[in-house]
Amino acid sequence: MKRVVITGMGGVTAFGDSWDAVEARLRSGENAVRRLAQWDYFDALHTRLACPLPAFTTPAHYPRKKVRSMGPVSLYSVRASELALADAGLADDASIADGRMGVAYGSSSGSVQPIRAFGTMLETGSMSNVTSNSYVQMMPHTSAVNVSLFWDLKGRIIPTSCACASGSQAIGYAYEAIQSGKQALMLAGGAEELSGPAVAVFDTLYATSTRNDEPHLTPRPFDAARDGLVVGEGAATLVLEEYEHALARGARIHAEIVGFGCNSDGAHMTQPTAGTMALAMQLALRDAQLSPDAIAYVNAHGTSTDRGDIAESHATAQTFGARMPISSLKSYIGHTLGACGAIEAWWTIEMMKRNWYAPTLNLDHVDPACAPLDYIVGGAREIDAQYVMSNNFAFGGINTSLIFRRVR
């Protein structure tokens, strides 16, 4: 089996599109949660909180012919991929279009505006807002395809539209494509755009935070006083590359992917199962040929939902015991849904390279129903890690676990 390394990373998030900007915000101990007055329009929506991008403008050099097939979720994906390719030294390398590079990319869904246009058509009979690009902007694989078309990539396309595991599953499947010799390079990641309907999905389940007048105090992963998640948006892309291919071109290596586990609870659409979550972690360890003691830090899915945090904590403790340092990056930029697995993988790798790990914000009192773990709180933790794990768990009982090795 071939070794797989990460040679490029980039993203667009509520904390900016460079690691320097992200690190500054992580170290500040402040999150990106805001009250959105425009959501007062939705009278039955309980939450008014979100973590939007501060601003996003389509880069002027993007050709109109390629942009017209993109909604916001695809634009975020393409911009994150552009940054990752530049980081990998491949931004101006036309040879990536020869079939050696593929794309694995995911989001919970396509863009919302075209769905609204088709809904208006059904309701009023008018097709005034339906265009020839409406479907391609809303289709579940819009991000994967638009990333591929933007750089004329001819390798395999792996769309992963599986809610909160979309980004991490894309990275895992890209890793397997290279590991098995099917591709030399893969762009892998996830994206999500913020919308009222996306928030309503969780609001109808009473899973959103309603601290509408205290945005800085939520979300609160694993905390006894947590009251739900906050939805965010953004995108992140990793460039995955076969190790010998990376060496031959003198690429800088950020980290190596050594393990991936993915399974299904097979039990309930929205209520997680600790036993199969733990099995996903064990599958990743088995794939990496590592014992649990080798993992020095776990980036938690940590959504700040009632049952999710409890199940995840018990799955983690079942796998590693109470000694495991763990924190949730969603306490900073909310739950970015299809993007979270990719954003959190990017940030986890950057933290591993620097020997420090951000704490979970707003975690004042661990819920006694959560399993005993070494919850990182108060300030960044210094850990000299060789291996770290990043976990994500999605609606439908889809569980993913990724293991990264530090390259010194």
Word description of this protein:
With 408 residues, this protein is an alpha/beta fold. 33% of the residues lie in helices and 20% in strands. It has 13 helices and 16 strands. It has an 11-stranded mixed beta sheet, sandwiched between helices. Helix 10 (274-288) packs across helix 11. The protein starts with a strand and ends with a strand.
Q: What is the terminal-to-terminal distance?
A: 22 Å
- In which order are the strands of the major sheet placed? 5-4-6-8-1-9-16-15-10-11-13
H and E string? EHEEHHEHHHEHEHEEHEHEHEHHEEEEE
Tell the overall outline.
globular
According to DSSP, the number of beta strands is: 16
Percent of residues in β-strands: 15-25%
Structural class: alpha/beta
- Count, helices: 13
Rg from Cα: 20 Å
Provide the descriptors you would attach to this structure in a database record.
single chain, about 400 residues, 3-oxoacyl-[acyl-carrier-protein] synthase activity, Ketoacyl_synth_C, 3-stranded mixed beta sheet, alpha/beta, globular, 11-stranded mixed beta sheet
How do you describe this structure in short?
By secondary structure, the chain is of the alpha/beta class. It has helices spanning 19-28, 64-67, 72-87, 112-124, 134-138, 142-150, 166-179, 196-203, 243-248, 274-288, 306-320, 330-333, 340-354; strands at residues 4-12, 34-35, 49-51, 101-106, 157-159, 185-192, 231-232, 234-242, 255-264, 295-299, 325-327, 356-357, 374-375, 381-382, 387-394, 398-406.
